[in-house]
Amino acid sequence: MTVEEYNHSVDRYSDGLFRFIWKNIKDREMAMDIVQESFEKLWKKVHNVSYEKVKSYLFTTAYHTMIDYIRKDRNESNIEKLSPDKYSYNNHYTDLQKILHEALDKLPEIQRSVILLRDYEGYSYREIGEITGLNEAQVKVYIYRGRVFLKNYIVSIENLI
Known about the structure:
This protein is mostly helical.
């Protein structure tokens, strides 16, 4: 990959990459760090990654970097980092989008990731499998189970009141 192709990939994929990570971890600063780190890793391997595969490489790298950050964050027990907004619960909703985001937050990490890759970013099952390291059948199962949960959660009258 040339420097021009690298710069083009930054312009082309940084927003989508940021949205994907941000929707998963709900921390804007950390999402920006993960995106930057993913592009840094790409830069270090710029001669080994073909331009045709750069999108898949970036999303795979960002996904695995996000998992590393999540694991690291879970291991830290710094009470000052806790955000009241992240752990508070408000049972009065007027916006369906808020309910959907709450439902996405309740999904297991892998289901949330594959649903976001499929429904928000438009990846195929094969591409999602490459990014997450799952086979296509596993991706389909996780997406199905996640969608069933989302449907049941959103339809539940208690969540809409």
